[in-house]
Every structure is written in C-alpha cells, then in structure tokens.
Amino acid sequence: MEGINQEKFSAINKFSSFVSHELKNSITVIKNAAYYLENSKNNYNKNQKKMFAFLNKEINRAYSKIVLLLDDTRIKYLNVQSVNIGDFLKKALAKHNDSKFNFKINAESNIRANIDKNRFHQVILIIIDNAKDAMPYGGDILVKVYSLKSKAIVEIKDFGYGMNKETLKNCFDPLFTTKKFQLGMSLTVAKQIILMLDGKITAKSVLNKGSKFSIELPKV
User: Structure pTM?
Assistant: First the structure.
C-alpha cells in the first residue's frame, strides 16, 4: 500500500481496537454514574445543572470519537457506486455549516467517480476538521471539483496556520500528530480509503498561509 507500512498499520489496528473497547466500557460506566447523579432527588442549583449538561455533552463526544476510531481502523471493504462528486460534496458540506466558516464550492457539472459515500464523506470531514483546527478564528474554506483527463479532482484549501516541512512530509503517517490528545490516525485512514478507491491524496502547505489537500479519483 503506497506510503503506508502495512505491517505497522495492522499492528495499530489491533492496538486501537483493544484500546477502543476498553475505553468504551469505562465511558459507559461514567455515563451511567452521571445519569444516576443527575436524576437523583438532590435539588441542584443552576450552575450544577449546567455542569451536568456539560459533562453529558463531553461524555457523548468522547464516546462518538471512540466509536469512530474503532470503525476507522477496520476498513475491510467499500460499498462503491458511481456518484456525482460535485452534488455529493454540496449536500455533505451543507450538513457541516458553521457560523465561523464559509464553504466556497466551485464544482464542474457531472463529474462522476466510484466512491463509498460514507467513507468518502469521512475523508472530506477529516480534511475539513483539520482546516477548521488551522483557522481557530474562522474563515473561508475553498472546495473545488474539476476534471483532469481521466481523473476527477477534489481540492480543499484553507488559509490557516499551514504545516512546516516535517509535518507536511509525515502528515499521512500512522501515529504522527502535532495535536495534543490525538492519536494521529485520521489522515492515515483518509489515505487508506482513497487508495482503496484506486485514487491518490496529497497535501501542499505554506506556513501562515494555509494548506491544500488534493484527491484524485478515476473518473467514470
């Protein structure tokens, strides 16, 4: 598999699955305890109720992240179908509207490729989340879809912090991350999905000017 040490990835699969199962069990216990305390007969004040709401939100967020991690590292097959990439991205990104960020989509009409909708949406979301992290104060995220010979091209560009040479070189590698409390698997998984679609994903970046991720897929 291009750019990925398959043996290392297999070991990471087993490790992350074990960790995810263990963490899911612990979080379930915490969630049940929080529910019991919140619904006990104590008369909580306004601030205490806010803390319970915050606690439940973070528990659910952590649980969903673990479920995604467990699912992400078990990609065995894809449910592939021919899809209009521009239309698909417009609908997908509409679900992730954010007052801080403005998606600017420029898509040529009727460019089709074979994708797994759920997994491709996952790839796009990984890139979008990275773009948002790089622009904490918000801004434009440019999405471009066009045809280049036999390829369908998707480009996602942000105007954030950008990556230095070392980060850019290693950003798709398993367990490489510059973020605290992150496993460093998201872009590795994104690359795995694109490779399984017979495609290619690359990144370019300039410090303090932003990053651009480009996805190439066979056009149908």
Answer: 0.70
